[in-house]
Specification:
The chain has 14 helices and 14 strands. By secondary structure, it is of the alpha/beta class. The protein has two domains: about 130 residues, Enolase-like, domain 1 (2-Layer Sandwich); about 280 residues, TIM Barrel, CATH 3.20.20.
């Protein structure tokens, strides 16, 4: 055992300090410092989603209408101070599973509703970051060791709809994905080129160029098809072809599902599961779409099975609300042939350990993994390091706009430099 290993065995968690900060929507969230016995400080903050699966880990809010419209997080911060901190003080931070397990035991619920997933996750992530700083290595290298060397392909959100904007688009996200680029720098350039060409095109045609929660434009298009057509024109105007840049959709079908029907208000359609599958199938025939996220509601298992069977060989079928970064739900999905890819959101799981376990399960069964941001984000770039550490094939971190999104892209650029040196 070398000197560094002996030091790691002796280091302890000395203090944990949490505070309320604001996310990208101006809503409260938690930022936590984990302070080690040698003075090293690791800091992490957690995001929040607008469109959520019902089985996500629960973020704890105060529900006091006089405090940030009920969204303050002082109870969760109090739980860190009074329950989590005493339980973790003196523990070795390098035992990440033990750290997370202690918090899970203190919570004692299946969905972290007692302590709050926002409280638990902020401590979990800050602990890992403190360890990386103690070792004086990048976070991705601490999490992935010598094996975390693959840069993810970005899925770049350029049009927002659904719960992420106040326009009339039914689908939540229209994204582009550069598929020919060999590096992150070029992928980001391609995404930026198309994003700015789309802005010019929208302005020229009298559409709004205001943006939604994730930085994509939010115009009132007449249909989902029109949104895709505008993107294709922007790709062409930027000097690219559909052989170089493909389209990805986040349908967020939970938001559309009412009493057994999928209601596409903007399209004037009420569709059964089979009709919805046919509708999505036709889109993939008409347009260069290579990924569909949450094409059906999270409990529509028969529909998911048929969707996967129908489109799974030609298209990435992504479960977000379907799986909510939950090991058991993913395991059921694998056994039941539901989807072929999973969105990874650490705040759906609630701890780093559970997130990593779910990723490993997905990769074991050849499910693609897409590490993802949330619509209510912070400037924390943890997911950029995580995506590289686990060799995730893809990352979703928003548009080429808004600082909390751009920070993740900028971190990926720095990671790429470190990997290629």
């Amino acid at each position: 055992m070398d000197g560094n290993e002996r030091l790691k065995m002796k280091v302890q968690i000395k203090d944990i300090i949490a505070r309320q900060i604001l996310d990208s929507r101006g809503n409260p969230t938690i930022e936590t410092d984990v302070i080690l016995s040698d003075g090293t400080i690791g800091t992490a903050s957690v995001p929040a989603g607008a469109s959520r699966g019902k089985c996500e880990a629960i973020e704890l809010r105060d529900n006091d209408k006089f405090l940030y419209h009920g969204k303050s997080v002082y109870k969760a911060i109090d739980n860190i101070k009074k329950i989590i901190k005493p339980a973790l003080t003196g523990k070795n931070p390098f035992n990440q599973k033990e750290i997370d397990l202690i918090m899970l035991e203190k919570d004692g619920t299946s969905n972290k509703s007692k302590l709050g997933a926002n409280a638990v996750l902020s401590v979990s992530l800050a602990t890992a970051r403190a360890c990386a700083k103690f070792e004086n290595i990048p976070l991705f290298r601490y999490l992935g060791g010598i094996f975390g060397t693959t840069m993810p392909i970005p899925m770049i959100n350029i049009i927002n709809g659904g719960a992420h904007s106040n326009n009339n688009l039914d689908f939540q996200e229209f994204m582009i994905q550069p598929i020919v680029s060999c590096d992150m720098r070029e992928s980001i350039k391609m995404g930026s080129d198309v994003f700015h060409e789309l802005k010019i095109l929208l302005d020229k045609n009298g559409y709004s160029t205001s943006v939604g929660d994730e930085g994509g434009f939010a115009p009132n298009f007449a249909s989902n098809n029109e949104a895709v057509e505008f993107i294709l024109t922007a790709i062409k105007n930027a000097g690219y072809t559909v052989n170089e840049i493909k389209i990805c959709l986040d349908v967020a079908a939970n938001e559309l599902y009412k009493e057994g029907k999928y209601i596409l208000k903007n399209e004037g359609k009420e569709l059964s599961a089979k009709e919805m599958i046919n509708y999505l199938h036709q889109l993939t025939i008409n347009y260069p779409i290579i990924s569909i996220e949450d094409g059906l509601a999270e409990d529509d298992f028969d529909g998911w099975r048929e969707l996967t069977c129908t489109l799974g060989k030609k298209c990435q079928i992504v479960g977000d609300d379907l799986f909510v970064t939950n090991y058991n739900k993913l395991e059921y999905g694998i056994l039941s042939n539901l989807a072929n890819a999973i969105l990874i959101k650490p705040n759906q799981a609630g701890t780093l350990s559970e997130t990593l376990d779910t990723i490993l399960l997905a990769q074991k069964y050849n499910y693609k993994t897409i590490v993802s941001h949330r619509s209510g984000e912070t400037e924390d770039t943890f997911i950029s390091d995580l995506s590289v550490a686990v060799n995730s094939s893809q990352i979703k971190t928003g548009s080429m706009n808004r600082g909390e999104r751009i920070s993740k892209y900028n971190r990926l650029l720095k990671i790429e430099e470190e990997i290629t040196i």
